[in-house]
Amino acid sequence: MTAVFGRNSALSVLTATLAESKRLVDLARATRAHAVVARAHAAIARGAIVITGGSEDPIRGDNDADSRTVFIVGLLTEGPTCLPCVRRKSESSETEAARALERIGAVLIIRHEPAGRCGVCDTTATPVFWIGGRTPGA
Prior knowledge:
By secondary structure, the chain is mostly helical. The chain has four helices and three strands, in the order H-H-E-H-H-E-E. The chain has one domain. Helix 2 crosses helix 4.
């Protein structure tokens, strides 16, 4: 038996298929994001110098900017850190630290507290950044 679809019927099937396709793509992206975070934590624990999986531009440890970025990832996984400490510990300028945070943000979720406590210098009421599930003061 051959099904005959009218123009409106075919359009509604196509619309439903596209909506389901978009839902599946969104689910796949969310699943991949969780996997990338888990892989990054495992790589950092192993002392890896390359973190990939979240973008087409992997973060490598083969030049100064990439080494700095990998170092900052490790620093932010230890807990909330203020920008002056990120700059000081990674020996970065403000611009270099901001670029590194942007690159990291393309791969991992960087959490932010506008008035937190830095785990490095213990300054309070300062913007802090971290990677992972820990919250400031936890």
